[in-house]
Amino acid sequence: MREIYAGATRRARTIAEVLTAVTAVGLAVDAYVHIHLAPTFDPVKTSSISQGDLFRVEAALAIVAAVALLLRPRRYTAALAFLIATGGVFAVLLYQYVDVGKIGPIPDMYDPFWSTEKVLSLIGEAVAAVAALGLFVMLDRHSRQAKQPSAARPTVTPA
Questions:
Q1: For 93-139, how does the pLDDT look when each residue is reduced to its tens digit (9 = 90+)?
Q2: What are the beta bridge partners of residue 105?
Q3: Are 145 and 54 in contact (CB under 8 A)?
Q4: Distance (Å, whole) CA 117 – CA 119
Q5: In whole angstroms, what is the distance from residue 138 CA to residue 144 CA?
Q6: What distances in angstroms separate CA 115 from CA 40, 78, 85, 111, one per listed residue?
Q7: Residue 11, Cβ density class (10 Å: 0-12 exposed, 13-18 middle, ≥19 buried)
Q8: Is 135 exposed, middle or buried (0-12, 13-18, 19+ CB in 10 A)?
Q9: How far apart are CA 98 and CA 130, in angstroms?
């Protein structure tokens, strides 16, 4: 993280590190809940895939995004984390409130009941999405400022 923010303030580095950690923890909570619940949802299936399989895929994606972000905190890994977390939020809310039915190989995953695990997963995904978006914006701004010629950069004087 330090090499990304060469020339940035200590405050900016700290905020970026906190956003990275919060995103990773949110994705870890999401992955844990989906791995824990996957066997319970194996019976909900089509001929080719079960809801438990989809839960395992979600968990794997969340783990990959969290590890990628921790190892290489860049705009693209923050964007990946944001997309995976946001996709999870979308799926939870969609199947909570809309009976979509079976879509091709995807089983009918309508579940209008809230459980502790579902709420925990939703909170983890939402927190990860917000933190990843904030990190992406910070990294994007820093990258754009670093590309500006030094004469074009605004100077800030302490008050």
A1: 999 999 999 999 999 999 999 999 999 999 999 999 999 999 999 99
A2: none
A3: no
A4: 5
A5: 10
A6: 13, 29, 19, 10
A7: exposed
A8: buried
A9: 24
